[in-house]
Amino acid sequence: MGSFLTDALVVAVVLGIMIFIHELGHFMAAKAFGVRVLVFSLGFGKTLLHVKHGDTDYRISALPFGGYVKMAGDDPSEVREGDKAEFLSQPRWHRFIIVVMGPAMNVLLAVVLTTGLYHYHFQRPAYLDQAARVGDVEAGSPAAQANIQPEDLILRFGSQDNPKWEDVALKVMTTVNEAIPVELERNGAMVKTSITPIAKGPNREGYAGWEPVAPGILEEVEAGLPASKAGLKPGDEIVGVNGHRVFYYPNVAYAIQTGNGKPVTFEVFRAGKELQITVQPVYSELMGEKRWRVGFAFRPGMVVRQLPWGQAISLALNDSAHMSLVTFDVLGKILTRRMSARQLSGPIGIAQASGEAYRAGLPDLIYLVAFISLQLGIFNLLPIPVLDGGVILLLLVESLMRRDLSLEVKERFVQVGIVFLLLLAAFVMYNDLVKTFRPY
């Protein structure tokens, strides 16, 4: 219950910030063009709190999942006075800017947040920026079926030459049941194959069954436990277990647990020399769970630094543009049934992700807010009636026709949009419940 309340509170704050920024974009653009704004509301439904200042009634309403700016003369079914302060009396390019400023502010918020985050606390796994060399292959996985082996270097993945692990991971995640051509370097020879990721996990994302090279460098060795007694030290690199080479450090823990208490011989690289150290695990409790332990912890392999402002801005812009392209790619694959619609999340999924990010720390929460804000901006630009993208579509059509569409056409357009959004809301809620109670 405590976790649920935390998730609910965090998502209310997160969505509140994004909705405020979105509506602020509409509000500022309307004011700039002299349009009279009647209502600025965070949320829908019954008004909980409001303050009237000038022409505008500023409100907080009961249903927090949205908001709106009500402008004078923005309803084509109402009688207009022809006043320039009315929305529909404005030139079409004015109306376009007023509408597009909402999503634009969400995109801007994403860029600003990631820029600040990258400047003060840029953090990411080190392997993402490294050449895509395979460290582990799960038995029976798509990678194993493609005869991909540990230490293989990926020279070409799909259409991309010399990819980094970040490129490979993103391509796999957004590809399901489609073969991806792969060129590898193995022991100096070129190997050509293809891998077909399968859907896995609650979101049914693409899964290949391989892991990167992630060295097992010890960060901590607990005094009094077997590893310390056997002579292991911080800074040691575990390169093998029981005669098998290890390129992906989580496999070390797996070998200890599956050994069921048998002595484990580690091949250790220290000060330019390779040593063999045998350790007898003990069965003891760790974080409320009993397991076989030797008493060491690995260095997390994270790059943490502060980027100069220029580099932070450039990286934030690049990441936002890249993520936007990936979002459209995923949406296209969902619409063509090449990916599962379980990729979509609603309020429950957003609340769960927000709560997890909050518990992980401020950098994770800021990054999540930026990501969701970007997605909100993109979603609102889709040509769906009622959304900003639907209004933009009508403005473009009217500009091409050089006349306004009839009231009847606009009403039908809006009705279709309302029905679609209600069905979409029901679907994503169902999606969230399925992923919560049947994650696999």
Number of contiguous helices: 11
Kindly state the mean pLDDT as a whole number? 92
Helix content: 40-55%
- In terms of quaternary structure, what is this? single chain
CA gyration radius, whole angstroms: 27 Å
Q: Tell me, briefly, the overall form.
A: elongated
How many strands, what sense, and barrel or not for the largest sheet?
A: 6 strands, antiparallel
Uncertain ranges: none
Beta-strand content bin: 25-35%
Q: Tally the beta strands.
A: 20
Content-based structural category: alpha+beta
User: What is the domain total for the residues?
Assistant: 3
Distance between the termini: 23 Å
Descriptive notes:
This protein has 440 residues and is an alpha+beta fold. The chain folds into three domains: 2-121 and 350-437, no CATH class; 131-211, PDZ domain (Pdz3 Domain), CATH 2.30.42; 216-300, PDZ domain (Pdz3 Domain). Helices cover 44% and strands 26% of the residues. The chain contains eleven helices and 20 strands. Strands 12, 13, 14, 15, 16 and 19 form a six-stranded antiparallel β-sheet that branches. The longest helix has 31 residues, at 2-32. The model has no long low-confidence stretch (mean pLDDT 92).
